[in-house]
Structures are given as structure tokens and as C-alpha cells.
Specification:
266 residues; mainly beta; six-stranded antiparallel beta sheet; four-stranded antiparallel beta sheet
Length: 266
């Protein structure tokens, strides 16, 4: 006699065709709103640099995630004094005029910031396509330490990439740090595609068409045949290399590079 006799309820019979979600093929876009983490493992580049200092605040860049067409910047915020009646959770980027903000100046002169938002109504399309967007993907942490990620929807062009940080509420002045975007772009070749052989999902099979016997009303076809649809497979390969250097701007809170260390795993 089983100890659980009389208590076990039989499972219902499985469905003949269970429902499921199926991942489609990766479709490259000039503007990626989110990292394509369902299809790729990014090229992780460890680097540590102080990008903002206040009396009781340190803002540190802790590494990069390079995706096929976009970039994630790891940021960690350290504080040793926090108001008891203030927010204790992850840092928010648009709390007011004195809030934490980030910006990037690209080598081609374009500027993007976490304060830009999304234009509405959307501007008319141009031949150059959509421009890059810098957004905060969210954060985690506790009272004195938060981790946040910045996402640039396009890889920056070759040349210098200037990161600008400011947080008036915490006494962090406008601080500029320079990185080498050329090496960041090169690292994109080291992204690993998880499903390289998947390609484009083939179309669902169609029922065979009803064929009429040749006759006066339905003559036989004189040529041609039934077409087929094929897809393409996209993949990424080759190793990457780490980015370069950092520097501060005189009079705006000088920033210097720290000895390199691997970023904390998230």
C-alpha cells in the first residue's frame, strides 16, 4: 500500500496539438529598440572608468555589451549618504531638473541623451533612416548601490565616443569621458549567433489546390508550375577587441581611468 494512496490526482490527457511559442528568425534593423538577446550572445568588454564624482557619489562605467547593431553601457552608481525620505531603489533618469542624466556625442557630431524622449508625432522619414536613441534599460540594487544599463540603438561611428554624465542633485558636475568607438565597432564581429542554421522560418504548408480535369471550361495549363519559397541565413563571426582610453575635461570634474577589472555579473 502506497503512503500517498488516494491522494494522487491523475493528470489530464495531453492535448493532441499542444500550443507553443516559436522564435522567428532575427531580422536586422537599422534601429534596435532593445538588444536582440533571444538570438545572440553579445561581445562583452570589461572596462572600468569613473565617469562622475560628487561629494558622496561615484558613478562608474563597468563594461560594454556589443551587439550586432547596438551597444549597451554598464553603469554602477555608489552613494554613501541617502535621504531617508528620498527614493531608495534603482536610479531614475527623469525625476526633475536636478536628476541624473547621460549623453553621448558621436564622432560624426550627433548628440543623444537620456532626456531626448521619443518625438510625437514621429518626424517624416528621411533617406538617412532613423537616428540613434539612448535609453535606460532599467536597474537593480539597494539603498547605496545601483546598477543600470544604457542602450544605444545603433553602433557608434568610428572615432571618439564622448560620454557625458551630470547629476546636480548629488553634486556631480558635467563630466566628460572619451572612449574609442572604432574598437567598439570592431568588437561587434565577436558576437555569437545562437541559432546560425535557423535562417528564415519556412512558410506554413498550404493545402494542395483543387485541380480540375481539362475541359472546355477548365483548359489544361500550357506552362509554368508550382513555385517554392526559400529563406536566407544570417550569421556573425570573428573575434573582437577591447576599447581604448578615458580622460576628463578640465573644470568639469576630472575623470581618470581605473585599473581594468571585469564587470560584476548581472
Amino acid at each position: 500500500m502506497s503512503f500517498f494512496e488516494g491522494l494522487i490526482v491523475a493528470d489530464p490527457p495531453p492535448a493532441a496539438e499542444p500550443l507553443e511559442w516559436r522564435l522567428g528568425a532575427y531580422e536586422p534593423a537599422p534601429h534596435e529598440e532593445h538588444p536582440p538577446s533571444d538570438w545572440f550572445v553579445p561581445a562583452g568588454i570589461p572596462q572600468t572608468a569613473r565617469v562622475g564624482d560628487g561629494p558622496d557619489t561615484r558613478i562608474v562605467l563597468t563594461g560594454w555589451e556589443v551587439w550586432p547593431r547596438s551597444l549597451v553601457i554598464g553603469i554602477e552608481v555608489f552613494r554613501r549618504r541617502v535621504a531617508r525620505d528620498g527614493p531608495h531603489g534603482p536610479v531614475h533618469f527623469r525625476p526633475g531638473a536636478d536628476g541624473l542624466r547621460f549623453g553621448l556625442l558621436l564622432a560624426d557630431g550627433r548628440r543623444v541623451t537620456t532626456l531626448d524622449g521619443t518625438a510625437w508625432p514621429a518626424p517624416p522619414p528621411t533617406g538617412a533612416g532613423p537616428g540613434p536613441v539612448l535609453t535606460a534599460l532599467g536597474g537593480s540594487g539597494g539603498t547605496f548601490h545601483q546598477q543600470v544599463n544604457l542602450h544605444l540603438s545603433q553602433l557608434p561611428p568610428d572615432g571618439e565616443l564622448l560620454l557625458v554624465t551630470e547629476w546636480p542633485a548629488e553634486g556631480v558636475p558635467e563630466t566628460r569621458t572619451v572612449f574609442d568607438a572604432t574598437r567598439l565597432r570592431a568588437a561587434a564581429a565577436g558576437v555569437v549567433e545562437v541559432w546560425p542554421a535557423a535562417g528564415v522560418r519556412p512558410p506554413e504548408p498550404r493545402p494542395a489546390p483543387h485541380r480540375h480535369r481539362p475541359g472546355p471550361e477548365h483548359p489544361a495549363p500550357t506552362g509554368g508550375g508550382w513555385g517554392t519559397t526559400t529563406g536566407a541565413t544570417r550569421s556573425w563571426s570573428a573575434p573582437g577587441s577591447p576599447p581604448g582610453r578615458t580622460r576628463g575635461t578640465p573644470g568639469s570634474g576630472r575623470c581618470t581611468g581605473w585599473p581594468g577589472r571585469a564587470p560584476r555579473s548581472r
